Amino acid sequence: MPTVRNMIDTQRSVAMRNNVLFWDTREAMGGEDAVVQWNRNGLVNKDYVHLSHKGGQKLAEPLFNAIINSLYK
C-alpha cells in the first residue's frame, strides 16, 4: 500500500510529540513487503493487514522486549 509509509511516519511523529512509545510493527516484521512472506507463511490473514494467531505469537516476544528495553534505558 503506497500510503503505509506516510501513515507510519505520522504515527511516529504523533507519538514523539506526545511522549508515547511507538513500535513499528512493519519494521519488526522485516520492513517493506515483508507482509507478502508473512502471508505465505500463514502469519497474516488474507487481507494482508491482520495478524493470524501464529503471527501474533511471532511478534509477541519482540514487542515485549521493545517495551522492556524502552522502560529500562
Notes on the protein architecture:
The chain has one domain (4-71). With 73 residues, it is mostly helical. The protein has helices at 4-17, 25-29, 34-40, 53-71. Helix content is 62%, strand content 0%. The longest helix has 19 residues, at 53-71. It is flat. The chain contains four helices and no strands.
Counted up, domains total 1
SS content category: mainly alpha
Strand content is under 5%
The pLDDT mean sits at 94
Gyration radius over CA: 13 Å
Helicity range: 55-70%
Summed up, the helix count is 4
Order of helices and strands: HHHH
Ends distance: 34 Å
Low-confidence stretches: none
Which term fits the overall shape?
Answer: flat
- Largest pleated sheet: none
Number of strands: 0
Fold blueprint:
Blueprint: H1 4-17, H2 25-29, H3 34-40, H4 53-71
Key phrases:
73 residues, single chain, mainly alpha, 62% helix
Summarize this, please?
Helix content is 62%, strand content 0%. The protein is mainly alpha-helical and 73 residues long.
